Amino acid sequence: MKPLRNRVGHYVDLGQESFESLSALPHRIETRRPGEEIVAIGETVDYVFVIETGWAIRYRILDDGRRQIVNFMLPGACFDMMSMAYAKADHAVSAVTEVRLRRLKSADFLKAVSMRPKLATAFWWVAIQEEAILREQIVRIGRRSAKERVSHLLLELNRRIAAIEEKLTDFINLPFPQALFADALGLSVVHVSRTLTKLKAEGMISTSPEGIEILDRDRMAEMCDFDSRYLHLERLKLVD
Amino acid sequence: MKPLRNRVGHYVDLGQESFESLSALPHRIETRRPGEEIVAIGETVDYVFVIETGWAIRYRILDDGRRQIVNFMLPGACFDMMSMAYAKADHAVSAVTEVRLRRLKSADFLKAVSMRPKLATAFWWVAIQEEAILREQIVRIGRRSAKERVSHLLLELNRRIAAIEEKLTDFINLPFPQALFADALGLSVVHVSRTLTKLKAEGMISTSPEGIEILDRDRMAEMCDFDSRYLHLERLKLVD
DNA sequence: CGCGGGTTTGAATGAGTTCAATCACGGTGG
DNA sequence: CCACCGTGATTGAACTCATTCAAACCCGCG
Question: Which of B23, B43, B124, B233 lies at a C-alpha separation of 20 to 30 Å from A220?
Answer without folding.
Answer: B43
